[in-house]
Amino acid sequence: MPLQVIPRRDRKLNSLIKKATPMAYRKGRLIYRRGEPSTMVMLVLEGHVHLTLPKTGANRGRIVGIAGPRELLGLEAVTLDVPRRYTAIAGSACTVIH
Asked: What is the CATH number of domain 3-97?
């Protein structure tokens, strides 16, 4: 689930953010897939990202979380050293840093 980055004035955090690579995604574009190995945490700068679980049988995939500006993605997978638990899809045009 998303985790909001607070406070905004953390010098070390801002230094890491400046060094990160921003990526722009169009609405509906896949950012990462459930089950993939995780080597990085991502931060949403603009827009929002849907975290989804895949289809099972007749059930459609469902949204289980939404990450907006200043929220982190993929933290569980990196800290627990497990594959990604959710699929991340751009819910709007968005910018995410890696």
From this structure: 2.60.120.10
